[in-house]
Design goal:
Blueprint lengths: L13 H15 L1 H4 L11 H7 L6 H6 L1 H16 L6 H12 L7 H14 L5 H15 L4 H14 L2 H4 L3 H8 L4 H14 L4 H5 L2 H7 L5 H15 L3 H13 L6 H17 L5 H14 L5 H12 L6 H14 L5 H17 L1 H4 L3 H6 L6 H14 L5 H9 L7 H17 L4 H13 L4 H17 L4 H12 L5 H14 L10 H10 L2 H17 L4 H11 L5 H14 L5 H10 L7 H13 L8 H4 L11 H16 L21 H8 L12 E2 L3 E2 L7 E9 L3 E10 L4 E10 L7 E7 L1 E4 L5 E9 L11 E13 L15 E12 L5 E3 L5 H8 L5 E7 L5 H12 L2 E2 L12 E10 L3 E11 L6 E9 L2 H9 L2
Antiparallel strand pairs: 1-3, 2-3, 3-4, 4-8, 5-7, 5-9, 6-8, 9-10, 11-14, 12-16, 13-14, 14-15, 15-16
């Protein structure tokens, strides 16, 4: 599209989408089309342009309108095929086409209007003025066909200055008695609203009158335009929806469907909607369930089922209506009904059980999409007694459906197994058989992930599950899955009664697979030997064979493990490292730094972990780095995340959050903070005072799961003073949500030697998502001052008790962004689809305070605390629209993705945004929206 239009949902217009699809189809079927020649296939542009000179002959135009239509068709064919006209050619053709206005033939007029819309962008402004004058005459024509088409063309070529001249003509056309003219004027208003909103808003009274038209088409167009005119005024929208839902003015099915959607939007946008209005809105939706038109009936049923706070009693009428569609003879109705019921079953499974009998008959439906949705819905709503029967029915058609449907079924089976663990044998057997079938990576990964989750949550199926996975890697074509399974075998096989039976599965991978899988197999063997002493000698023989492997990584791992397992001294510590990894709290990066430092200046005695001094001092069961690595790995595997940078800001995207080893080591070495758990992120220093004051203060926020440690960097700029017992006092206005867990003073702060003092705040999790609300705390510095000798820097009087002083500074602010860790997402689209729309929320906002998209993007990134992905933080200086993609992890374990579409509002100023957020938790989605 040369000029992309957006509909009211912010999506590319239907015309633009159609043109893209047409282009791709033309490329796809180019070879097939070459077999069939059309009458226009060998057209030459020069020859067609020569023929078009006949337009200058008045007799030809009046007597041969059919030939004129054919010439216009040839011109349009050349344009569609990609031919372009030079400015001179376009001018000549354009003037020739304007001669056709003297013809009154309807078909020729329609072809002429179509051609003008296609070539008007390539013509000069003077030529546009000429054709605008002719079109304005047609708008006042007595022929309705000419009036309607002229209006459509005018809205395509006219600008804001000329629109005011024909404003009254369009207003008259909106309320015209002819439905085609009225509809054309209203549709023109839709297009003009994007760039001339102020003028179109003046037509509200005429559009309001058009809603009462007897034409279904006019009603639909008028309702959508009136809604767009008033969509930024919540009160006006509420009045419009309430008035139309109470009356019986709408007899258009399309208009009624749109009114249902507007009603739902109003109910979702106004959480504090009065009970009377909420009941009236629900009554309107329930009334639509009795409509004769099936489209309206389904739209109302789906709307009621999607109400966020709907109870089983509220959705019961909608489920009954959808049940009628299950027996429809039209596949589209059956598919729509079962899909909606499948979504309802996720929240209210008992409400859908009355449809189970109807859905069981749909398992054999010839449309496999319908059959898949039916079976997954039954898996959500069925009882324990129906599990075995459902497994047999699913197995009968698994080979006939695509991988995307198979993945849905696998996830439903996993949920059912967790619901009825006593039936795990039949469901595990089904998953095991599915692993043997043909399928792509996503399908096999879904099965493996399902089995892994079940192994951890259903202990009874551990042995059967490990056997199934062991057999699968014997013929697995996906190395990522093989590595994941080998890691699991090394972890769980030692806990089984007969761990030796898994050696064959693991060692076969050392012999037959590619280097990454061989390396994972060597690690699994070593862990098995470390955990099961009776198998150590046998495994050592296998590991020594791997020392001759062609790959460096495999050889190094095998040599390292053989050395550790063969050690005669300190074998327990070696075994512990193999089983549990690095000691608790140790960072791999810190270990590397310590080894380099040790090499430069070795400490006395033998090399040991203690001598490297890399312990982070965490008293938790698991070190922060181990947990962070596991969290990163989980994000990489589950959401397509490729990297989590521990360093500071860097690159165009702003870098990931700082979790610095120095910060962590310093905090964990303070006794009051040693037991706080994993450090999720550390902010950059924020100035809380001016640089010119006596005492400057900066704040660094360290976020833990339940705590926030405020580190205050204090600098004394007065050379004659020494500060002692320096602390920061916070005034807690939200004492119930936040409380002071600990406070650490700084003993001395001399001139030019900054000191640090800390305040640790505890967040009360009983308040749920409200505990993440933004809050600010007034602060003041409390200390005693002592006079010092500037030449020596020592106190003048050692017995001086000092003067107690207080120094207020700016408030410290804590908000949801402080709990959001930045995460780089490699393939955003894949991660977006993977996370699903179960907890998705979208909304439109107007940011009037920003003049450019670049400023708005920077503010959104700062407010949300998330990581820009795929370079979307970089915005061209004169950009009029932009797409920002963000990734994050809330509280260290909840994945969050955001997609923000920004458009400059040229008329009203500022930037308009449409933001969509997906996460694994609905409350987190609401918290992210609350940041803006």
């Amino acid at each position: 599209m040369s000029q992309q239009q957006l509909d009211e949902e912010g999506n590319p217009s239907l015309v633009g989408t159609f043109m893209k699809e047409l282009s791709s189809m033309r490329e796809k079927f180019k070879d097939e089309d070459s077999e069939y020649e059309t009458s226009f296939q060998h057209l030459e542009k020069a020859a067609v342009l020569q023929e078009c000179r006949k337009f200058n002959d008045a007799n030809f135009v009046s007597k041969r309108p059919g030939e004129c239509c054919e010439l216009l068709t040839k011109l349009l064919y050349l344009l569609v095929q990609g031919d372009t006209f030079t400015p001179a050619e376009a001018t000549e053709v354009f003037f020739g086409v304007t001669r056709l206005f003297q013809s009154q033939a309807p078909m020729l007029r329609r072809m002429m209007y179509l051609f003008i819309k296609e070539v008007v962008e390539a013509t000069a402004a003077e030529e546009v003025i000429i054709v605008t004058s002719s079109l304005t005459k047609d708008v006042n024509s007595k022929t309705d066909l000419f009036r309607a088409n002229a209006l459509r063309v005018l809205c395509k070529i006219i600008d804001g200055n000329m629109l005011g001249q024909i404003d009254r003509y369009i207003r008259q056309a909106i309320v015209d008695k002819d439905n085609m003219v009225s509809s054309s004027a209203i549709v023109s208003g839709h297009h003009l609203l994007n760039d001339n909103a102020d003028i179109v808003r003046r037509w509200a009274n005429e559009v309001q009158e058009a809603i009462n038209s007897n034409s279904a088409m006019v009603q639909y167009h008028a309702l959508t335009l009136l809604y767009r005119i008033r969509q930024h005024d919540r009160l006006a929208v509420s009045k419009l929806v309430s008035r139309l839902s109470r009356g019986n003015t709408l007899h258009s099915s399309l208009a009624t469907c749109m009114l249902i959607r507007y009603t739902i939007r109003m109910m979702n946008a106004n959480k504090d909607l009065p009970a009377k209005e909420a009941r009236a809105s629900y009554s309107f939706l329930e009334m639509c369930l009795r409509d004769k038109d099936e489209m309206v009936l389904f739209e109302a049923a789906r709307a009621i089922c999607n109400l966020p706070d709907a109870t089983p009693q509220d959705i019961s009428p909608a489920v009954t209506a959808l049940q009628l569609f299950l027996g429809s003879g039209k596949p589209v109705y059956r598919f729509a009904a079962v899909r909606t019921l499948s979504q309802v079953a996720m929240k209210h499974p008992m409400s859908v059980t009355k449809c189970n009998e109807d859905m069981e008959t749909m398992i054999q439906d010839s449309n496999r999409s319908i059959a898949t949705l039916a079976i997954t819905t039954l898996l959500k709503t069925g009882g324990e007694s129906s599990v075995d029967r459902l497994m047999k029915q699913i197995s009968s058609f698994m080979s006939e459906i695509g991988d995307e449907f198979k993945v849905v079924i696998v996830k439903a089976i996993k949920a059912l197994c967790l619901k009825y663990p006593s039936k795990h044998r039949s469901m595990l057997a089904f998953l095991h058989n599915a692993l043997r079938e043909e399928g792509g990576f996503q399908f096999k990964k879904a099965i493996v992930d399902a089995i892994l989750d079940l192994l951890r949550q259903v202990p009874e199926m551990k042995i059967e599950g490990l056997n199934a996975l062991g057999e699968f890697i014997e013929d697995c074509e996906f190395s990522q899955l093989s590595v994941k399974i080998l890691q699991l075998l090394g972890e769980l096989a030692p806990t089984t009664p007969h761990p030796g039976r898994y050696i064959r599965f693991i060692y076969n991978r050392v012999i037959l697979e590619i280097p990454p899988v061989r390396a994972a197999a060597v690690s699994a063997l070593a862990k098995l030997a470390a955990c099961v002493e009776s198998l150590r000698a046998e495994v050592l023989i296998l590991l020594r064979r791997a020392q001759t492997d062609d790959d460096d990584e495999v050889r190094d791992r095998a040599t390292s493990y053989v050395t550790m397992l063969s050690a005669k001294e300190n074998i327990e510590s070696s075994v512990d490292v193999i089983k549990n990894g690095l000691p608790s709290g140790m960072s791999v990066r810190a270990l590397e730094k310590a080894l380099i430092a040790y090499q430069a200046r070795p400490s006395p005695g033998p090399l040991s972990i203690e001598s490297l001094n890399v312990q982070l001092g965490s008293t938790s069961e698991k070190g922060y780095e181990d947990e962070r690595i596991e969290r990163t790995t989980s994000l990489q595997e589950d959401a397509g995340i490729i990297d989590v940078d521990d360093g500071g800001a860097g690159g165009d995207d702003g870098g990931a959050d700082v979790v610095d080893d120095n910060y962590a080591a310093e905090l964990y070495n303070i006794p009051e903070f040693a037991g706080l758990g994993t450090l999720l992120k550390s902010s950059r220093p924020v100035k809380l005072t001016e640089d010119e004051v006596e005492y400057t203060v900066q704040c660094v926020k360290h976020t833990f799961n339940e705590h926030i440690v405020l580190q205050f960097n204090v600098n004394n700029t007065i050379e004659e003073q020494l500060l002692k017992n320096v602390s920061v006092a916070l005034e807690l206005e939200e004492e119930e949500v936040w409380s002071i867990h600990a406070s650490v003073k700084c003993e001395n702060i001399a001139f030019g030697q900054p000191g640090k003092c800390y305040v640790c705040l505890l967040r009360n999790e009983e308040y749920g998502s409200d505990s993440f609300d933004a809050v600010s705390f007034p602060c003041e510095l409390q200390f005693t001052t002592h006079d010092v000798d500037t030449s020596t820097g020592e106190m003048i009087d050692e017995d001086d008790e000092g003067y107690a002083e207080e120094f207020p500074f700016e408030d410290v602010e804590i908000g949801p962004a402080d709990f959001m860790a930045k995460v780089n997402v490699g393939n955003f689209r894949s991660a977006w689809e993977e996370i699903g729309n179960a907890a998705e929320k979208t909304d439109k906002l107007a940011l009037r305070q920003f003049k450019t998209i670049g400023d708005a993007v920077a503010a959104i990134i700062d407010a949300l605390g998330m990581q820009p992905c795929e370079g979307t933080a970089s915005v061209p200086s004169e950009a009029m629209k932009h797409m920002l993609m963000l990734g994050g992890s809330f509280c260290g374990n909840i994945k969050v993705l955001a997609r923000v579409q920004l458009v400059v509002d040229a008329k009203n100023g500022g930037v308009l945004i449409k933001m969509g957020v997906r996460s694994e938790d609905e409350d987190v989605t609401d918290i992210v929206f609350g940041c803006l």
